[in-house]
């Protein structure tokens, strides 16, 4: 009897399967499961290892069919193999089965069936089973590892490839060809370079050759043409596989980094946009701050021109204000406005500014063709447009209407000597700028109107000339210190009393504008009336206190210095209402401040006093407002000391001329300081006595 397999084995004489002792000894030591079935499919022999597969003792198997003992899956496998052997007398090999032990552990087996022959034919079937649990687990671990690797590669969008030691591609890379659309023949050898972007190919090829020569890692990035004829960004890394000092192959991986590149480009664009937005915001804030300080139309126009040059990089800037009565735009700044004729533009004449005003919308012309098309639509003549475009170097234009509460005030015009792409964000910025400019223009227009009214009022209240009196010389200086060109409450006056003496006064109504000027006018007129009826300074100030309480508001502060002087002799009296003391200047250049009580401002309950004040011949008395001696950087006391010391620097010819003396004092006291208040100065000079006198 023999057991035939696919590889015949030599028969061993004297071996009888019926020799139970020999069989038992062999089977008990065998590391594999064994079972023998008779032609009827019943168990004849099993070893102990087989019982690990079935879970039953050896004795229980004998003379039983598999279906009586074994699980359905194992029974099915065995019976199918027995039937096949009975019919074909051929082995059935490498059948896989898994069993589960009582403790829940799974075991994996490889089972093979072989027919057993004697001279009469098949006498039974032998089953051999090998425990391949460890191998199965290793295979599963390897398979999971491969799956993880494959998933990782796929998730990283990597294309793995292999090349020969010389760098030529010898194996297919389906993923690469799926992306590039290359055929196998196109891809093999060095065909993959054909898919690299033409601009990237020279550098890529040289870097690859350098890596091959040096047997160093190849790291590069390039764009690859896709099947759809677009390009994607890839980063490649390849390493040489070296055995026994020789490169046997190169293994590389291409990683699709297009999303990262696109994200970087998007971040770059967003950063640029945010930077541009921040810059536009800063420019708008800067322009708003400048416009807030510009209160005259002239100042507003200058700010607009500066903003056009700095914030917009405009080569030409123009501003025009609307004259509704004449249906024209009047150019306030016409520098670089070649499409206009004269200082006035008829609204019916199509150009950048009139179109912006008429439509109440911004006009953006990014090129001459764009401007031409818009002007033609507005009814401009082709010859006129061509003539303008031929004469100018401008190549882009912006026209912005100045709108306040929906009402057109005028227009802004910015022009560039290059074509200019104007984005939506630029348009928003320009409209916001125009809105701020419109508010500034409206505010400046109202301010100038108020200023003109107040200035007219102030001038009407101040004397046009000082009286000419024998034995006395009078002079005055007034210098506005308002940055906003507003009129203030400073005033001066001098007039002859009924007894021939001269009354002189310098006063200061705190505040600016029409209100201060009107208050100054009331006090000045009241003082004249009181002085002409009862000239002593104390009496005049007492009367002014009553007038002030009756006509002025409590928070109004008004100060003044009032004196009465005898022409020729200079004898006089002085009264102060909260005002700095007068300065007496000698012919030798000595300046003395009159030491007297300053008193309180008008309207404060107090007993007014007057003091003797003499201006000897050759001397000059100077009355002044606090703007001469006090500012943000210099206090009143320091200013008074400086005023006395400045007199000593005056040359003799200045000391003898009240007009020259006032110019000298004002210039020297304001030198080095920013004037922030009105300066009013009045000089009373008594000429030296002559022999004829």
Automatic annotation (TrEMBL):
Coiled coil: none annotated. Residues 93-144 form the PAC domain. Residues 145-215 form the PAS domain. It holds the Pfam family SpoIIE. Keywords: Hydrolase. InterPro entries: Bact_Sigma-Reg, GAF, GAF-like_dom_sf, PAC, PAS, PAS-assoc_C, PAS-like_dom_sf, PAS_4. It comes from the Bacteria. PANTHER family: STAGE II SPORULATION PROTEIN E, STAGE II SPORULATION PROTEIN E-RELATED. This is SpoIIE family protein phosphatase. It comes from Microbispora bryophytorum subsp. camponoti.
């Amino acid at each position: 009897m023999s057991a035939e397999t696919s590889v015949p084995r030599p028969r061993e004489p004297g071996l009888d399967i019926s020799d139970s002792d020999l069989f038992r000894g062999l089977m008990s030591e065998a590391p594999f499961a064994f079972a023998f079935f008779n032609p009827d499919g019943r168990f004849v022999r099993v070893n102990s290892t087989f019982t690990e597969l079935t879970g039953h003792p050896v004795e229980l198997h004998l003379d039983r069919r598999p279906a009586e003992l074994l699980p359905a899956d194992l029974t099915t496998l065995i019976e199918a193999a027995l039937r096949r052997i009975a019919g074909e007398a051929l082995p059935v090999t490498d059948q896989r089965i898994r069993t589960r032990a009582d403790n829940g552990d799974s075991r994996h087996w490889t089972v093979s069936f072989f027919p057993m022959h004697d001279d009469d034919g098949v006498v039974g079937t032998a089953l051999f089973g090998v425990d391949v649990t460890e191998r199965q687990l290793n295979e599963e671990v390897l398979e999971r590892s491969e799956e993880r690797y494959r998933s990782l590669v796929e998730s990283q969008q990597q294309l793995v490839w292999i090349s020969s030691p010389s760098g030529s591609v010898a194996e297919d890379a389906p993923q690469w060809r799926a992306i590039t659309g290359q055929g196998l023949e196109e891809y093999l050898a060095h065909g993959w370079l054909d898919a690299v972007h033409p601009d990237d190919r020279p550098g890529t090829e040289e870097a690859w050759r350098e890596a091959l020569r040096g047997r160093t890692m190849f790291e590069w990035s390039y764009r690859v043409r896709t099947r759809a004829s677009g390009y994607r960004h890839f980063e490649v890394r390849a390493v040489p596989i070296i055995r026994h000092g020789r490169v046997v192959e190169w293994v590389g991986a291409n990683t699709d980094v297009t999303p990262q590149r696109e994200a970087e480009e998007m971040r770059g664009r967003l950063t640029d946009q945010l930077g541009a937005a921040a810059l536009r915001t800063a420019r708008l804030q800067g322009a708003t701050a400048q416009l807030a300080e510009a209160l005259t139309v002239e100042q507003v126009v200058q700010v607009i021109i500066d903003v056009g040059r700095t914030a917009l990089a405009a080569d030409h800037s123009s501003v025009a204000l609307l004259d509704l009565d004449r249906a024209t735009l009047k150019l306030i700044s016409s520098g670089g406005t070649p499409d206009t004729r004269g200082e006035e533009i008829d609204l019916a004449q199509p150009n950048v500014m009139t179109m912006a005003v008429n439509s109440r919308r911004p006009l953006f012309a990014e090129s001459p063709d764009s401007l031409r098309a818009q002007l033609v639509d507005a009814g401009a003549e082709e010859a006129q447009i061509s003539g303008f475009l031929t004469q100018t170097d401008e190549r882009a234009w912006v026209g912005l209407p100045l709108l306040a509460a929906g009402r057109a005030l005028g227009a802004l015009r910015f022009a560039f000597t290059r074509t200019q792409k104007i984005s939506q964000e630029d348009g928003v910025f320009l409209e916001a700028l125009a809105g701020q400019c419109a508010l500034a223009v409206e505010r400046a227009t109202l301010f100038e109107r108020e200023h003109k009214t107040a200035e007219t009022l102030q001038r009407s209240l101040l004397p046009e000339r000082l009286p000419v009196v024998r034995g006395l010389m009078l002079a005055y200086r007034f210098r506005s210190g308002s940055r906003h060109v507003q009129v203030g409450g400073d005033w001066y006056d001098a007039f002859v009393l009924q007894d021939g003496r001269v009354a002189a006064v310098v006063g200061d109504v705190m505040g600016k504008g029409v209100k201060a000027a009107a208050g100054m006018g009331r006090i000045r007129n009241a003082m004249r009336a009181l002085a002409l009826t009862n000239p002593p300074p104390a009496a005049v100030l007492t009367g002014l206190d009553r007038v002030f309480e009756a006509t002025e508001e409590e928070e109004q502060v008004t100060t003044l210095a009032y004196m009465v002087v005898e022409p020729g002799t200079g004898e006089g009296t002085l009264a102060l209402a909260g005002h700095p003391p007068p300065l007496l200047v000698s012919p030798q250049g000595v300046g003395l401040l009159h030491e007297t009580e300053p008193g309180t401002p008008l309207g404060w309950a107090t007993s007014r006093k007057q003091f003797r004040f003499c201006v000897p011949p050759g001397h000059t008395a100077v009355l002044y407002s606090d703007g001469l001696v006090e500012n943000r950087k210099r206090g009143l006391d320091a200013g008074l000391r400086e005023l006395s010391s400045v007199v000593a620097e005056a040359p003799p010819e200045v000391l003898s001329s009240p007009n020259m003396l006032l110019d000298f004092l004002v210039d020297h006291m304001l030198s080095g300081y920013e004037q922030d208040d009105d300066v009013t100065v009045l000089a009373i000079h008594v000429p030296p006595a002559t022999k004829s006198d």
